[in-house]
Amino acid sequence: MTPEEWTYLTVLLFSIPIGFVFKRGGHRVKQFGGAAVGLLLTLITCNIHTLHSLVTILGTWVILSLSPRSCHYLTLGWTFSYLLFFRMVTFFGLPAPTPFTNAVQLLLTLKMVSLANEVQEISQAKKQDVTSFTKVPALGLIPSVPGLGPTLCYGYCYVGLMTGPFYRYRTYLDWLQQPDSQAIPSWRPLLARARLVPVYGLLFLGAARLFPLDYVRTEAFDARALPFRLFYMVPIFFVFRMRFYVAWLCAECGCIAAAFGAYPTAARSRPGGGPTAHCPSTEEGAPGAAPPEYDYETIKNIDPYGTDFCVRVRDGMRYWNMTVQWWLAQYIYKNAPFRSYVMRSGWTMLISAYWHGLHPGYYLSFLTIPLCLAAEGALEAGLRGRRGAEPELEPGRSWGAWLHWFLKMRAYDYMCMGFVLLELGPTLHYWRAVYFCVHLGALGLLLLGRALPRSAPRAAEGPRRAGPLGGGE
Length: 473
Description:
The chain is mainly alpha-helical and 473 residues long. 62% of the residues lie in helices and 1% in strands. It has 20 helices and two strands. A two-stranded antiparallel ribbon has the order 1-2. The protein is globular and about 60 Å long.
């Protein structure tokens, strides 16, 4: 592990016991104490580069104050433009930011864009007098436009500061305003999420030692046979997954310890978005009624089993970095300037690559996903015409499902190489060493799917349940 990774792990582990402290606190303790801890961590790890996050928050606050009814796209433009400046500061003679500054900036960008959207929603609702015609407040609306203080506290809250999960301002307010945090369970759900973290950690350390990434860049690797070169991307992606499983599960445990993102199960919460249904509070329940059950779906950021064993390429995205996938689906995919599923997915992947950074490997990897999605969709449509119905593809259901799963995993192995090698030359060098197998294979499957005869469209065909990133279409 690198020194940066040890620092990340220390911050994550620190957030768990301090979460229990904040769980016992009131509104002001959570708001100002949480922001103070987050700002202190930012100053320690980012030093003078903390100014980048401060400028981002101040710029967003100015936009929210001057144009609350149309601040969403203005804030999106402001934060993403500042990301470009942030990543090019060395061209202006400024010192390069630390990796921790980059992590803070990434999560802060998501939070400021989401906050602007929530402010725009409440401003439009007030303009239309929506709240005056309903006894039940609109789901998810914030009560008012936050001032500079609340915006700073939300931006610097220690929860999810560097590793996520992403959460909306509404979720943050609900945490501050919990009437009885002590009644919300923490220990049992925390242990349930943490039980496999040591296993993932040991697997990460062992696999990283046996299969170092730097070996891919050596002449000795080029001299190995093709089967070995094809195989090597499998443990590389395995190491990549294990690292993030540990980080995100520890981050979720920090949230659970503080009862952050806890909602009654009746609210049917979604990762990132929060509740999707109204549910009565404990005060509104019938006398003597059992207390509600709670879950932490709002801050759930990773589903290791779903990531490893889902069948489709598009499902793989839904189980990985789930709160950020919600953000992409809600604010990018739904507003994409295209109607085609593949084109909208491509646009979303392009924005996601830009958000991650300027390294060419991000773009090469993310923009391979639309090709895989197109191939997957075309082949499924073609095979559906021969079978007459679309099965629920789950591992163990059929040999076809297992084959689909195998191809999905190899596609992600292949794309992961661009994500970890980052630079254009090394990424293309590795892909060339395996003969661009996924690109050519996906293209071949796409042509095969297009060539297969189609059945007549079904009269009762309903709308697709969800978009490629988990958002509804």
